[in-house]
Design brief:
15-stranded antiparallel β-sheet; 36% strand; single chain; 3 helices; mainly beta; 19 strands
Length: 371
């Protein structure tokens, strides 16, 4: 269900943002076109996807307005835990297959293949394929900052289907709230502003399901920072971090000291790192989940194409001159937090630099028991 809201009632949603980043053409894959949804492409409207149908199924919601619906909406699992590369002393609810590039950038991009069939996502778990611009700061819990652009399957938010998500943090993973951090989107933490007329909204389902040894689908995902001189993002705003998919923008995080801007300071106009990773969350990791990391296949030199998920043609926008550059194998480093009995990653020069990732999680007694 989608609410169509007049664009003039959503400050920061209107205008002509800078052109999207370049998009490599890779015709060897199946089509990646996003289906036209009601209200999409109309610059007078902003689409808000209602994140769950549970209230309607149970009869708890008989909402006659968006505000009425949001007032009754339950809150999903908060994105607490540890980030790739951080030591797991507590809050060990996540495993990763992760890569990081240490480069001062004003954006990041890659093809993301993250929607697989059949794919298993157990109750109280989720799977994410995520790209970040990030500064880990001095303490991941209290002062790290990042913006994540995500394809994921998260039943706690809105069911098992693969959807577009975003998260952000300004005061580390331990601090969430409006303009502070956490999941972005309808009924979540304010800070992200959807673009009027965008073809894609947060919580939209992702088209194209990849199958082992079958058809493969991916999405061109990108994030870019533009200063206020390039995009008039409003009072007190110094610039915006924009999120886009395929050939169009989805929305932006305006940067500034006071709401409705987001008070980034470590990544106010650039970020020192870019992350790409698969992630599985388990709320009770004493016995690790059997949730797949996209595909249930392990990534290795002999199990890549048509077997596992991927980030392909990974790259970034150089902060000094905004030039788009592809990453290389020597620049993209493996990041800790993995357990090869659960999930694996493998890097190679395939489409420029590609990181493959996948795995079944727990498959039997004593197999994949990370903690």
């Amino acid at each position: 269900m989608v609410d169509l809201v007049a664009a003039e009632s959503v400050p920061g949603s209107q205008g002509s943002p800078p052109p999207p980043t370049f998009k490599p053409d890779r015709p060897e894959l199946r089509n990646r076109a996003f289906p036209l949804r009601i209200g999409a492409g109309d610059p007078s409207l902003v689409r808000f996807v209602r994140p769950t149908f549970d209230h309607y199924v149970t009869g708890a919601a008989r909402s006659d307005s968006l505000l009425s619906y949001l007032a009754k909406l339950p809150v999903g699992i908060a994105p607490t835990g540890f980030a790739p590369g951080a030591p797991c002393a507590d809050n060990c609810e996540r495993l990763y297959a992760a890569s990081r590039q240490n480069v001062n950038s004003r954006g990041a991009f890659s093809w993301m293949n993250a929607r697989w069939s059949p794919g298993e996502v157990q109750t109280n778990t989720f799977f994410l394929s995520q790209m970040n611009v990030i500064d880990l700061g001095t303490n991941i819990k209290t002062n790290a900052e990042w913006i994540g652009w995500i394809i994921g399957r998260n039943p706690q938010l809105n069911g098992p289907q693969a959807r577009f998500y975003s998260e952000f943090f300004t005061q580390g993973m331990s601090n969430t709230g409006p303009y502070v951090g956490g999941w972005a989107g309808t009924a979540r933490n304010a800070g992200f502003i959807p673009m009027a007329g965008a073809l894609v909204a947060l919580d939209d389902q992702v088209p194209g399901i990849s199958t082992v040894d079958g058809d493969q689908y991916d999405q061109w995902m990108f994030m870019d920072y533009f200063p206020s001189s390039s995009w008039n993002c409003g009072t007190g705003c110094t610039g915006s971090w924009w999120l886009g998919v395929n050939s169009g923008w989805v929305g932006h995080y305006p940067v500034g000291a006071a709401s409705p801007n987001v008070p980034f300071d470590l990544i106010a106009s650039s970020a020192p790192n870019v992350d790409w990773y698969g992630e599985v969350y388990d709320a009770s990791p004493g016995t690790w989940t059997s949730t797949d990391m996209g595909s249930a296949q392990f990534a290795s030199s002999s199990s890549t194409w048509q077997q596992t998920g991927w980030f392909a043609e990974m790259g970034y926008r150089r902060a000094s001159d905004y030039t788009p550059l592809y990453s290389t194998l020597t620049e993209v480093a493996e990041v800790g937090g993995d357990d090869p009995d659960c999930y694996t990653r493998y890097e190679e020069t395939f489409w420029n630099t590609t990181v493959w990732y996948g795995g079944p999680g727990r498959t039997g007694t004593g197999v994949c028991d990370p903690f």
